[in-house]
Write a structure and sequence with these properties.
This protein has 314 residues and is α/β, with parallel strands linked by helices. The protein has 12 helices and 12 strands. Strands 4-3-5-12-6 form a 5-stranded mixed beta sheet. The longest helix is centred in the C-terminal third of the chain and has 25 residues, at 289-313. The chain is rod-shaped, with a radius of gyration of 34 Å.
Length: 314
């Protein structure tokens, strides 16, 4: 056997056998432990001795005695053999180490300000050593961010299905008409407010690239109505502030935390679709231990929230 062949396939196996002979004190015991025959084991040791050009054991009948060279080899080989044998378990233990690491999440402003804090509070309490990074973005940029691996997850909506992204629903929010408490529309019974009534006053909306803008335009067109835009704000949070200041009305969702005494919110789910938010990731992306823990937690959180909603609605 040439040296290259020996190194390619046999060296570790033979070192392991050598260490087992030393640990067991005999070839017969070692052969039983390794699940091989004594002649095959003896041949392995002879091959190792030939390869190293030394004698590792003195054979004295049924007894063996390790030589000084054998003792030196055992001292060197034993930690290596143990380390390699324990490598899978050591690797898994290291991978599950949550004493460090980053987790990056992107989402819209409403998500980061309203939906995410409760989830992150629970996550950070469980894994205080993980650094969480949140970044605000718009819906249309989510695919590019995830496909570029610039974030572990996005939380939000998608304009359309994407073959390279995986979307898992988390929560749904009702669309709401929001208006200042002194607005004329507050004098109309909630169930009687029509799209034409809203169109008469115009809307404050987030920018054209936003999910809200797109949905509002589609619904008004579906009902053959013009949707006059009075003011374009930078975000849903800004829209809410302008409405609170008495500057107009808007269509937002419950996710925007509309519990403001200066605002009246009226459900509009008979006109507008529910706004669905989900956990989004790149299909096939390797998830770190940190990401896996967050995914498990947020999906469990969503399950609890949805169960509570079902009970409330019964």
């Amino acid at each position: 056997m040439d040296k290259s062949s020996f190194y390619r396939g046999q060296f570790f196996k033979t070192l392991k056998a050598f260490c087992e002979v030393v640990d067991s004190g005999s070839f017969s015991n070692a052969a039983l432990e390794l699940g091989t025959s004594q002649p095959a084991l003896s041949l392995q040791i002879q091959t190792l001795e030939k390869h190293l050009n030394t004698i590792l054991f003195e054979r004295k009948g049924p007894k063996i005695q390790i030589t000084p060279d054998g003792a030196r080899l055992y001292e060197m080989a034993k930690p290596v053999v143990d380390s390699i044998q324990n490598l899978p378990e050591s690797f898994l233990n290291t991978r599950d180490d949550l004493s460090y690491g980053d987790l990056t999440i992107v989402g819209g402003e409403a998500v980061l300000l309203s939906l995410l804090p409760e989830i992150l509070k629970e996550f950070c309490a469980q894994y205080p050593s993980i650094r969480v990074i949140t970044q605000s973005t718009i819906v249309k940029n989510i695919p590019q961010i995830l496909l570029s691996d610039d974030a572990d997850f996005a939380i939000g909506s998608l304009f359309e299905e994407h073959n390279e992204l995986v979307y898992q629903p988390i929560y749904s929010f009702s669309p709401m008409l929001i208006m200042p408490v002194q607005h004329p529309l507050t004098q109309i019974p909630e169930q009687n407010i029509q799209l034409s009534d809203i169109a008469a006053y115009g809307l404050i909306l987030p920018p054209e690239y936003s999910y809200t803008w797109r949905v509002v335009q589609v619904i008004f067109q579906k009902h053959q109505l013009e949707c006059p835009i009075k003011l374009i704000a930078s975000s849903s949070e800004a829209v809410k502030r302008y409405v609170s200041a008495g500057m107009g009305i808007s269509i937002l969702t419950e996710a925007c935390q509309l519990n403001d005494e200066t605002i009246k919110a009226v459900p509009m789910d008979h006109y507008f679709p529910m706004r669905n938010y989900g956990l989004i990731q790149r299909r096939g992306k390797f998830l770190s231990a940190q990401a896996l823990k967050f995914k498990k937690l947020i999906l469990e959180w969503a399950s609890r929230q949805n169960a509570m909603s079902v009970k409330i609605n019964k």
